[in-house]
Design brief:
The chain has about 80 residues and is an alpha/beta fold. The chain is built from three helices and three strands; from the N terminus they run E-H-E-H-E-H. The protein has a three-stranded parallel sheet, with helices on one face. The mean pLDDT is about 95.
Amino acid sequence: MKHIVSYSTGLLSTLTAERVIKKYGKENTILVFMDTLFEDDDNYRFLQDVEKYLSIKIIKLTEGRTPYQVSKDQNIIPHEVD
């Protein structure tokens, strides 16, 4: 059985990934990162660091647009955070 971990580039998802790998093995663990193309550069760096630390490839999925591009395409006024 494969165990899929939704990886967010945060500490808690890293610890979750580590525990799942320890319990079920790397061969039975799949880490998936949903890339919004809108993350801070440090998140992407941490993603690479964790791949090296856990010695496992993290699958990166993306729709191809940033949240602002999606809101423009859908005629939605985005909520901007200052």
